[in-house]
Amino acid sequence: MTHKFKCFIFIRQLLFVVFFSLSVIIQAQEMLGVGLSNYSGSMSTLYNPAMLTNTKNFLDINIVSTDLFFRNNMYYLPASDYSLYKALRQQPLPAYTSDSINAKYYTNHDLKFLAASIRTMGPSAMFQYGNNGFALTTSARYFVSGNSIPWEFPVIAYKGIKNDSLHNINFIDYNINFSTAAWMEVGLSYAYNVFKYYNKQLTVGITLKKLWGYAGVYATSQNFNYILLNDSTINIKNMSAETGFSLPIDYNNNSFPNKGPFFRGSGLGMDIGVVYIKKKRGYQRWNGRELCTQPYEDYNYRIGVSILDIGNLKFKKNAQLHAYDNIIRYWKNYDTLNFRNVNNMMQSISKVFYGDPTASFKSSTMSIGLPTAISVQVDVHSLRNFYIAGFWIHPLRSNTHSLRRPAQLAVVPRYETKNFELSLPISIYDYKYTRVGISARFWYITVGTERLGTWLGMANINGLDIYTSIKFNLGVKGNCHYRSYNKCYNGEYGFTKKQRRAFRKRRR
Fold it and tell me: Residue 172: beta bridge partners?
């Protein structure tokens, strides 16, 4: 096997791994079956910090909750060839090429996207005291977003540069962007009922977050005008691009992990929100004594608006920023470059484009914006234990090297009680792809998916979906358990619930 062919195989496999390999293990989006519930507790801060004062619990402790998500429109596994049932039985993936690529690619010419998110919410707690709600949350997060990816990129990664179907075509692409980051965060949330009048209530909330960045990478291209002449020559007619990275490896020898600090970046984040509630009854005053006597005030409907993940991560350790401005290059034998390590790769590319191995280097710091988004939540209490929620989230990006949170529009009917909850989210992902999911809570454990068809083998696998949660609802409002020898004693009403039921029966 020639050196040129080895290099071609390496580049092809690398591109394919970046675009697809995650899709066989992860997907989920907004945990719609968890965060919109009246028993969501500290998890309500993921959607709107102002929801803290309108849960059915005054005390909630989250042990661990995990949200896994991946979706792409580049590669897929046909439902007829593979299913998650086969994956659970550890059956091998089908191969579709001579060098065992385990997927097919979409043949349309639409712009491609890639989105992935992993959030593990660790030990967290919420507490309500009257008109005040508090929460302390901890999370580890990993996020990937790729947008406006040209249709030919995944084809090149799949078929390789030797395939002549893409040769001698003038491709003109704009606003290509890819970003990924991994970080930890600790958030402190506060909500306050600023207005209460009869059956109306207005609550405002805020979450302040401290961020510690583990790693980050971004690459953007404002324009990329090029022709693949053959498998070894590319005519770059014009290109403007930028890339920044901070990784846990030694750039001189690619050893992992490097000897530097565990966290290479830091930052601040913030969520803000407001919730308006129309209650079924008038305002109930609390005596301010026992916490368990705080009344839960049921509602006809509530409407919330929030802006999530405002902020960014700035990497100062082991970071590099490179820029390529108005590059025009007739590049022969580009497939024969041999990169020994990261530094060698960046210097070789800079020498090709500028004739100087250090000319592309611009800074030893770089920043990645958080996946900022605006969200609207609507919840209607239709019957006794039945609710219908509406949810909308839309990304807000200040620049192309910010993470992009995919848009989503959903309707979530649910049945909820203290020990059991069932919801059926119906959502439209990025305003294009319809999904039907299911979520169930049994006491303290919740399991759900927003894409049930994939699990049932009814849809092609271009992403997966699952979320789980283990948390304890320790304090239920208006439900005090006193140990007293006085059978008539109750902290709020003077009689136990059992005695009140017996009294009503005697009156009939």
Answer: 225
Q: For 105-156, what is each residue's pLDDT tens digit?
A: 999 999 999 999 999 999 999 999 999 999 999 999 999 999 999 999 999 9
Which long-range contacts does 420-425 make (Cβ < 8 Å, 24+ apart)?
Answer: 421/33, 421/37, 421/39, 421/446, 423/32, 423/33, 423/36, 423/37, 423/448, 425/32, 425/33, 425/450
For residue 295, is the peptide bond before it cis, meaning its omega torsion is within 30 degrees of 0? Answer: no
Helix residue ranges per DSSP H, 305-446: 342-354
When the candidates are 2.60.40, 2.40.50, 2.40.160, 2.30.29, the CATH number that belongs to 3-477 is 2.40.160
Of 189, 185, 187, whose CA–CA distance to 206 is shortest?
A: 189
Structure token digits, residue 249: 């490896």
On the question of pLDDT at 163 being above 50, the answer is yes
Q: In whole angstroms, give the CA distance from residue 412 to residue 36.
A: 9
Residues 11/14/19/23 CA torsion (nearest 10 deg): 150
Do 43 and 471 contact (CB within 8 A), yes or no?
Answer: yes
User: Domain spans of the chain?
Assistant: 3-477, 483-508
Task: Note the pLDDT tens digit of each residue in 435-463.
Answer: 999 999 999 999 998 888 877 778 888 88
